[in-house]
TrEMBL record:
Official protein name in the record: Unnamed protein product
Domain of life: Eukaryota
Length: 241
């Protein structure tokens, strides 16, 4: 992956430094399909890995219960649902600040009734006038032709019909967990899956390569998950962090 953002961004970085802005261990970078963003240029140890919730912090005896290919996201949610009660009590202070189920229902389209989360097309009102989708086209599924019609931009088609993709991932993870814990309650598992989905960070285990499915590069980071969360947000259409 070519991470170079371009000469103009290097010049801007130098200008920012000349103005007294302190830049330490981070830099702008170009991400295929996601345009520009920020990367760490060195290991920044602010929150220890032992405090994170990742596939590395879950006991191997629990992870080994699941068949090969089970999503890491699903295993993390299963651990919060079925993990050792005494161990999980150790993160109660963290869990107590997570949104409750009602807050997720209000803010997460995947839990909305079908007439609010139309994922294929708009519907018609009683007067037969077309009503636009409440969700952005890339989320609702109304944009689904970029791979067929060239648009002249660097765009990754996996960002089309995001709601439908999220529903599929949640359903698949649910089925995988049921194969190990048949009595898993849907609402409890879905709650933790969505908590992870909305508050997680991109994470790759030390010494390992980036997974084929980027959704498996996932971890929760305490306190850092305050970033990009607002209790009085202007728009509640949150799918993921």
């Amino acid at each position: 992956m070519d991470e170079s953002p371009g000469k103009e961004h290097v010049a801007f970085t130098n200008w920012a430094i000349s103005k007294g802005i302190e830049i330490n261990g981070i830099a702008p970078a170009r991400f295929p399909g996601r345009r520009l963003g920020m990367i760490a240029t060195k290991t920044i140890e602010v929150i220890p890995q032992t405090a994170m919730l990742s596939i590395d912090s879950i006991p191997s005896s629990f992870v080994d219960l699941f068949p090969e290919g089970t999503s890491i996201h699903g295993i993390l949610a299963a651990y919060l649902t079925h993990g050792d009660t005494k161990t999980l009590k150790g993160i109660d202070a963290w869990r107590n600040v997570w949104p409750n189920w009602q807050e997720l229902e209000d803010s997460t389209p995947i839990l909305w009734p079908s007439h609010l989360r139309r994922s294929n097309s708009a519907f018609e009102d009683e007067d037969n006038s077309s009503t636009p989708s409440l969700l952005p086209p890339s989320v609702s599924g109304l944009w689904n032709s970029f791979e067929k019609v060239p648009v002249g931009v660097d765009y990754d088609t996996r960002y089309q019909n995001m709601l439908g993709q999220e529903e599929k991932r949640l359903t698949h993870a649910w089925e995988q967990v049921l194969s190990v814990f048949p009595k898993t309650e849907w609402k409890t598992f879905a709650y933790y899956w969505l908590i992870i989905n909305s508050r997680s960070f991109y994470y790759i285990s030390p010494g390992k390569n980036e997974p084929e499915d980027w959704n498996d590069a996932i971890a929760m980071v305490p306190y850092a998950d305050y970033f990009n969360h607002e209790d009085n947000a202007v728009s509640p259409l949150i799918l993921s962090l």
